[in-house]
Structure formats: C-alpha cells, structure tokens
From TrEMBL:
Gene3D superfamilies named among the record's database cross-references: Ribonuclease Z/Hydroxyacylglutathione hydrolase-like (3.60.15.10)
Pfam families: Lactamase_B_3
Domain Metallo-beta-lactamase: 8-190
Name of protein: UPF0173 metal-dependent hydrolase OCC_02039
Length: 225
C-alpha cells in the first residue's frame, strides 16, 4: 500500500516500499502547511519540480537534516549543491531513471523556473512508481496534449494536478488534463494558498465527472493507494 499525504500547496509526502519521498516541500511560509521541516527525521528522496521558492521550499533544510538526496532538473540540482553545504543532489533531465531503488520518470511541464531573479533549468513533473502504482505529480503546468503520452507509455494510477489558475491550470484545464491522462484517481493541489489561486475544488470535481475519482484532501490528510 502506498500512502500519499497532502502537506498543502503542491507539497506531498509519499511512502511505499519502505521509502519516504517528499515532493516540493514548501512548508516554511506556507499558511496551509501540515508539517514543519523539523518534523522529518527520515526522508530518502526529495523531488523538486522547478526553482520557484514555493516548490524548492525547505528541500535544502530537510536534506541537510536527514541526508535525503534531492532530485531535480540538472541545472537546478547543480545550483542547489553549489549554493548549499551538506546536501547531495541528483541532476537529471526528461526521461527515466532509478534512484535509491525508486523508478522515477521526469516529464515536461509548461511553466517558468527561476530563483526569483535568474532563470534556472526547466520546469518538470514526475511519474513515480512504488509497489506497482504510478503516481504523477504535474508540478506547476498548463494542460498540454503530450499528457496523452504519459497515459500511453506508463499508465497513471494517481494524478496530482494544480487547479489554482493564474500560475497554472485552472479547474477547466485540469479537468481536460484528467481526460488526457486517464488516471484512476486525481488529487487537486496548488489552490487556496494565496488569494490569486483561490479556487473551489468542488468545481474541479464536478468538471471531471466520471472520468476519474477525485479525492479532495485537506492539508495533513492521507490517501491510501
């Protein structure tokens, strides 16, 4: 069984096969965060989708404490390891790899990526396989037709999709992404944290209809896959 805990915004904790993975651990400064960086004693991998502060978040702090490896786009991985002591990064690019026994596929996302001043690498999403289940974290992105390839090549059991608009897909676009991805389950994310991305997840659920089962989690809640 794979446990997926929503930590608020686009941050998730995923556990399976004895591994603990964090994705985009934006906790400090996140008004809806369900955890603090110091809450984590054992983390194996931290996946970062792009260089914006609300996605890199506390990745470095948690990695320094736990020894977790940070997986990111090659340019972002180099940037992080050059500017922070005591961390190990694994830089990759779009495509498959295996880290700490976990199969990971880095896939494109349509979004910018910077430290607030300079562009760093490209934005991405991840497809993670644990216990035979495929989990797709879209990162920050707009909907795009190539999402069909993710379904065709890998088969998605659970999709974690942004619905906030303004910076990413809104409910309408995310519902179209569900149609392209064909997941069994979908969890909306990246909404309600700040005023520009205030959205009602029930609107998304209604738009998805019977295309997938929409699981609306409050920060801290867990979905078992």
């Amino acid at each position: 069984m794979v446990k997926v805990r929503f930590l608020g915004h686009a941050a998730f904790e995923i556990e399976g096969e004895g591994k603990r993975i964090l994705i985009d651990p934006f906790l400090t400064g996140n008004p809806n965060a369900a955890a603090k960086p110091e809450d984590f004693d054992k983390v194996d991998l931290i996946l970062v989708t792009h260089a914006h502060g609300d996605h890199v978040g506390d990745a470095v702090k948690i990695a320094q404490k736990t020894g977790a490896k940070i997986v990111a786009m090659y340019d972002i991985a180099n940037y992080l390891v050059e500017n922070n002591k005591g961390i190990t990064t694994i830089g990759m690019n779009y495509g498959p790899t295996e880290v700490e026994g976990v199969k990971i596929i880095q896939v494109p996302a349509w979004h910018s990526s910077s430290d607030g001043k300079y562009s760093i690498g490209n934005a991405c999403g991840y497809i993670i396989e644990l216990e035979g289940k495929k989990i797709y974290h879209a990162g920050d992105t707009y909907v795009f037709k190539d999402m069909e390839l993710f379904a065709e090549l890998y088969g998605i059991d659970l999709a974690l999709l942004p619905i906030g608009g303004h910076f990413t897909m809104g409910p309408k676009e995310a519902a179209k992404a569900v149609e392209l991805l064909k997941p069994k389950y979908v969890i909306p994310m990246h909404y309600g944290t700040f005023p520009p991305i205030a959205r009602d997840p029930e609107e998304f659920k209604e738009l998805v209809g019977d295309k997938a089962e929409v699981i609306i989690l409050k920060p801290g809640e867990v979905f078992e896959l």
